[in-house]
Specification:
Elements lengths: L8 H31 L3 H11 L1 H26 L2 H37 L3 H33 L4 H23 L9 H22 L18 H32 L4 H17 L1 H8 L1 H10 L3 H27 L2 H6 L5 H14 L3 H17 L3 H21 L7 H36 L1
């Protein structure tokens, strides 16, 4: 266990950000590796996998219900010095994650084809996306347990084991992707089916490895099968924080689905360009994401300990560092964007669409960094409702105009990205205002206690 209520905040941020950064990079590399090999199968395969992958947002929404609530409750218990409660929360989260993962797997198999028919640009895209999603669904279901375990570790200030496990999962995926997707050297290529299967096998191995880590003697958190059965009181504590965070990811799903739907007017090249460009942009913003994610456990422990001044100092420190990193990321995105995309496809139309996306949407990065920090702070404070409010605001101000514009004569792809810039900036400003209000209310309450 790492006590985050003492010592230099900047040191804690940097010490935790490095392994978190490595872990996020590895997760994104998994997706990029799959995309690299899938790109050789054509535009329909790229668009299908990218569109199907958007379903991951709705699954992430569900995983956040457990993982964010777990992180907040565990970190507060650590700040209070209540190890028994931290362990109880941890084991309750495992029970909830198993139930949620099972339900997700069943529901995912049932609706995969229907979802793809609603967003795919053409029949080939729908077929490729459905096949990928069916084989990728076990990986998404296993994320519940994976994130419950890793979130509990983050709550006690420990992040390296998760990074090591992610290294393993990426290594497995790197080995399996060419074997299963293009048939190296077996000669039996599975195509998009192989991409989903490779990810599912890799995540399964990661879950098993992380599970074995918790079997070691002397761990601060220990697995206890008797405490897995969900109990209403504690489940309510976890869900109270997790549900709004899950709602935020559900909104992101709707946001991305609206983009894919609008881009369907311009064919599979536009959807493929966005699929590649969005993953490249995600890779560029990882350093700031890693920094922002450190805020939740640091703030959670200090809030639990009743140290209001240190909570405020953490918010200021993380905001400054994340903003500086996002400024640098913006310059990277504008530096020869075609070079960043060329490794995934040689199709000129797809690259042109991806370049347009990167040049325009990268202007969102500073605002997005602010949103990340605010979201992480709300998690640490144990109240994620304000971030759900700001995300809902963005959904309304972006999706409704986008869907309306897509029906108008003269509609262009650029209109989608102009709206994205405007609404992301407005969301960042709203998040800052909500954060200021939340700090006044929550820290005043903390001091009164």
């Amino acid at each position: 266990m790492n006590d985050l209520t003492r010592g230099s905040i900047s040191s804690h941020v940097l010490a935790m950000a490095v392994p978190i950064f490595a872990g996020l990079i590895l997760v994104l590399l998994c997706g990029l590796i799959d995309l690299y090999f899938v790109a050789g199968l054509g535009e329909a395969a790229i668009a299908g996998v990218g569109t199907a992958g958007n379903a991951g947002f709705i699954i992430n929404a569900l995983t956040q219900i457990v993982s964010v609530g777990t992180l907040a409750a565990v970190s507060k218990a650590v700040g209070r010095g209540d190890r028994a409660d931290a362990n109880f929360v941890f084991n309750q989260s495992i029970g909830l994650s198993i139930i949620c993962g099972t339900c997700t797997l069943v529901a995912g198999f049932a609706v995969a084809a229907t979802y793809m028919r609603s967003v795919g640009a053409d029949a080939a895209t729908v077929e490729a996306g459905t096949t990928y999603l069916v084989w990728f669904m076990p990986a998404l279901a296993l994320q519940f347990v994976m994130l419950a375990l890793s979130s509990a570790l983050r709550g006690i200030g420990v992040v390296k084991p998760t990074m090591y496990v992610q290294v393993l999962t990426v290594a497995v995926n790197v080995i399996l992707a060419p074997v299963l997707i293009v048939g190296w050297p077996t000669g039996h290529a599975l195509g998009v089916q192989g991409a989903g299967l490779a990810s599912s096998i890799a995540v399964a191995i990661g879950v098993i490895t992380l599970w074995l880590y918790f079997q070691r003697p002397g761990n601060y958190l220990t697995l206890n099968l008797k405490e897995w059965r969900p109990q209403f009181g504690l489940s309510r504590r976890i869900l109270a924080v997790g549900l709004p965070a899950g709602g935020e990811f559900a909104i992101m799903f709707a946001y991305m689905a609206a983009i894919y739907y609008a881009l369907g007017n311009f064919g599979s090249a536009a959807q493929a360009g966005f699929s590649i460009g969005s993953r490249v942009l995600g890779l560029i913003q990882v350093p700031a994401m890693a920094i922002a994610f450190t805020a939740a456990p640091i703030i959670g422990q200090n809030f639990g300990a009743g140290n209001a001044a240190r909570v405020k100092e953490t918010v200021r420190t993380v905001l400054v560092i994340a903003t500086a990193v996002m400024v640098a990321a913006t310059f990277v995105a504008h530096w020869r964007p075609e070079f960043l995309l060329a490794g995934f496809t040689s199709d000129k139309a797809t690259i042109d669409e991806g370049v347009l996306f990167l040049k325009m949407v990268s202007l969102n990065l500073v605002a997005q960094g602010i949103i990340f920090v605010c979201s992480s702070t709300f998690q640490g404070l144990g109240n994620t409702k304000p971030q759900l409010v700001s995300s809902t605001f963005r959904l309304i101000t972006y999706v409704v105009p986008t869907l309306w514009l897509s029906t108008q004569t003269g509609f262009r792809v650029e209109h989608i990205w102009y709206l994205s810039i405007a609404t992301t900036t407005m969301q960042a400003l709203l998040s800052l205002w909500l954060l200021s209000r939340e700090l006044r209310l929550r820290l005043s309450f903390s001091q009164q206690r």
